[in-house]
Design brief:
The protein is an alpha/beta fold. It folds into two domains: about 210 residues, Rossmann fold (3-Layer(aba) Sandwich); about 70 residues, no CATH class. It has eleven helices and 15 strands. Helix 1 packs across helix 6 and helix 3 runs parallel beside helix 4. The model has no long low-confidence stretch (mean pLDDT about 95). The structure holds NADP nicotinamide-adenine-dinucleotide phosphate.
């Protein structure tokens, strides 16, 4: 019998890893690395504790040598993390692993979870892979640095760029939003006709699984579902929380102090009108990323 492909999941306690591992554990042998918090052991044949910021990554060396594929999901991005933590976990950690990987002259593939944040200050409202990657945020800049480091290395790579991920493993991301929802504080920014974007975790898992089964190398893909109107986004959440009232907030107020209790980062996303073109990933992997916001929101907020 052929042995299962061995996949090294770096950042095994991340939301993405928690969504992915149970779905693919039958098809692949999974080995995981974690930093501060150990994930559920059930899905992994081995788990190792590694701080990717240490120069000496001895234990990781052995796992890299054995791996057929690497899925790199490490990287903090929530406002509770300092700029240094964001830069370190999104760029330096990847750089350290890529340096070690190159020194070992490995040829297995490196699947990197980057982010649509690389386009965050791009002027374009219709974003495709060839759109300009430009960002003012430390997070977006760190992801651009990491992508470029990987692209200029000898490592065979696939870069995936999800937008904000919704699903049952991502409820923690929306704590501030949820507390506002529970206080009946829903604001529509502007008229609510702008397009908002999201990635459903189940669809992202499908994409990663298909990439693992494919032989695609040295390519990058934006990964998200079709956009939804901001008003529909709020209406879905109102239904979930049985909220009746909705208020409208002028766009400029959304960016002012008025918005502070809400989570400014999230508001910025809600005030933009953006559409991501994900035809490239759909055609490369022969999949359809459908409109799953209702399902995604139910799972995130219940
Ligand atoms: N969530 C989203 O909406 C979203 C959207 C677009 C892109 N992404 C990207 O997708 C990836 C996964 O996101 P996520 O939300 O699933 O992540 P997450 O739940 O926030 O987890 C991040 C992981 O990074 C690990 N990590 C951080 N610093 C590390 C270090 N120095 N050494 C080793 N491990 C370290 C953490 O390990 P410990 O738990 O052990 O501390 C943690 O498990 C991230 O790179 C993120 O930027 C996420």
């Amino acid at each position: 019998m052929r042995r299962k492909k061995r996949v090294l999941v770096i950042g095994a306690n991340s939301g993405v890893a928690k969504a992915l591992c149970p779905k693919v554990k039958g098809e692949f042998e999974l080995v995981g690395t974690y930093f501060k918090n150990a994930p559920d052991r059930d899905y992994f044949s081995r788990l190792i504790k590694v701080n990717l910021l240490l120069k000496h990554l001895g234990q990781l060396k052995k796992e890299l040598l054995l791996a057929d594929e690497i899925v790199f999901t490490a990287g903090y991005y929530l406002p509770k993390h300092s700029n240094k933590e964001i830069l370190d976990s999104n760029f330096t950690s990847l750089k350290n692993v890529v340096d070690l990987y190159e020194s070992l002259k490995l040829k297995s593939r490196f699947i990197f979870l980057s982010s649509s944040g690389v386009y965050s200050t791009s002027k374009s409202n219709l974003i495709a892979e060839r759109s300009r990657r430009i960002s003012n945020s430390v997070y977006g800049k760190a992801k651009i640095l990491a992508e470029d480091y990987l692209k200029h290395s000898q490592v065979p790579y696939v870069i995936l760029r999800p937008t904000m991920i919704f699903g049952k493993n991502f409820s923690h991301t929306f704590k501030q939003l949820e507390s506002n929802l529970l206080q009946n504080r829903i604001f529509v920014y502007g008229k609510g006709n702008n397009w908002c974007t999201y990635t459903y975790e189940e669809d992202l898992v499908k994409v990663i699984r298909k990439v693992l089964l494919s032989d695609i190398v040295n390519d990058d893909f934006n990964v998200c579902n079709p956009p939804i109107k901001q008003l529909d986004f709020w209406k879905t959440l109102m239904q979930i929380y049985s909220i009746k009232d909705i208020s409208y907030l002028e766009k400029q107020d959304a960016l002012s102090d008025l918005a502070h209790p809400f989570d400014k980062g999230f508001i910025v996303r809600m005030t933009r009108s953006r559409v991501f073109n994900c035809k490239k990933v759909e055609s490369a992997l022969k999949i359809k990323l459908g409109n799953n916001f209702n399902k995604a929101a139910q799972e995130t907020f219940k």
